[in-house]
Amino acid sequence: MAQNDLTIALPKGKLLVDSLNLLQKAGLRCEHVGEDSRQLTFDLPEDGARIIICRPTDIPTYVEYGAADIGFVGKDTLLEQNCDVAELLDLKFGFCRFMVAMPEESLPPRLADGSYDLSGLNHKRVATKFPRVAQMFFSEKGMQVTPIKLHGNIELAPRVGLAEMIMDIVSTGTTLRLNRLIEVAPIMEATTRLIANRVSYRMNYERIQGLCTKIRDLLEDLGDPAAGGEKEQ
Ligand SMILES: Nc1ncnc2c1ncn2[C@@H]1O[C@H](COP(=O)(O)OP(=O)(O)OP(=O)(O)O)[C@@H](O)[C@H]1O
Ligand SMILES: O=P(O)(O)OC[C@H]1O[C@H](OP(=O)(O)OP(=O)(O)O)[C@H](O)[C@@H]1O
């Protein structure tokens, strides 16, 4: 691998195929990447690049420390990890929403405007993969909750008495429905973002911004204009 080759961190799992498709459309010869799920690094010598495959939650860490120059990551993970990276583009795929949900048999009362009254949930336990985002959401409402950090199958927690509610991402709503949970508070939407190591972005500006521009043009062609350049998180 040459010294100024670009290292690109991609998340294994749900976002991998769309991330690879976008890179391929942007001209990278990465057809073979991800074929063997145990292989974690892929050199693309003709493109002066290397792709590394990471756990989705680890992407911001690889990028912050400069082990990768750029990375693809969900905004949900980016907010929770709170790493010092530059957010360059909203890639508009991997759409999901943060929300709070509770068992259908123990819903809070409704307010006059139809929304749920969350005030009775003060000091209750919230099971989540996103304790930081959960605390931010409730503290903005002047409330305190006890986050219980889990790593998956969050919807199970209120069903077995581990927590009164969950704070999680929802996409189709199928998992909530199957576990008889009802959304009581929407929080915010999240899509996949292109992020960069701050030093790499400065040192390798033309290369990274060139790729960014190509991807932004592709997204515009697909009818989804996304703003280029660094954004505040
Ligand atoms: N049901 C979903 N629909 C759409 N996008 C989703 C959905 N679930 C997760 N995502 C998006 O995909 C990203 C990766 O999710 P994925 O399920 O592949 O990994 P993960 O299990 O959350 O990660 P890790 O293994 O590091 O805990 C999430 O951070 C989110 O941005
Ligand atoms: O609204 P839906 O389309 O049903 O998707 C929502 C589910 O997807 C995510 O879980 P994931 O599949 O990543 O599994 P996990 O519980 O192991 O994190 C999320 O945590 C929900 O459980």
CATH fold-level topology of the largest domain: D-Maltodextrin-Binding Protein, domain 2
* H-E order: EHEEHEHEEEHEEHEEHH
Spatial strand arrangement across the major sheet: 2-3-1-4-11-5
β-sheet strand percentage:
25-35%
| Distinct small molecules | adenosine-5'-triphosphate, 1-O-pyrophosphono-5-O-phosphono-alpha-D-ribofuranose
CATH class of the largest domain: Alpha Beta
- Specify the number of helices: 7
Domains, number:
2
Mean pLDDT: 94
User: Given the C-alpha coordinates, what overall shape results?
Assistant: elongated
**What is the radius of gyration?**
20 Å
| Structural class category | alpha/beta
CATH homology group of the largest domain: Periplasmic binding protein-like II
Low-pLDDT stretches are: none
Largest sheet: 6 strands, mixed
- How many beta-strand runs? 11
Secondary-structure arrangement, i.e. CATH architecture of the largest domain: 3-Layer(aba) Sandwich
Query: Percentage of helical residues?
Result: 25-40%
Termini separation: 32 Å
Describe the protein in words.
By secondary structure, the protein is an alpha/beta fold. It has two domains: about 5-95 and about 190-220, D-Maltodextrin-Binding Protein, domain 2 (3-Layer(aba) Sandwich), CATH 3.40.190; about 95-190, 3-Layer(aba) Sandwich (D-Maltodextrin-Binding Protein, domain 2), CATH 3.40.190. Helix content is about 25%, strand content about 25%. It has seven helices and eleven strands. The chain has helices at about 15-25, 60-65, 75-80, 130-140, 175-180, 200-205, 205-220; strands at about 5-10, 40-45, 50-55, 70-75, 85-90, 95-105, 125-130, 145-150, 165-170, 180-190, 190-195. The strands form two sheets. It has a six-stranded mixed sheet. β7 (about 125-130), α4 (about 130-140) and β8 (about 145-150) form a beta-alpha-beta unit. The longest helix is centred in the last third of the chain and has 17 residues, at about 205-220. The model has no long low-confidence stretch (mean pLDDT about 95). The site of adenosine-5'-triphosphate has 15 residues, from α3.
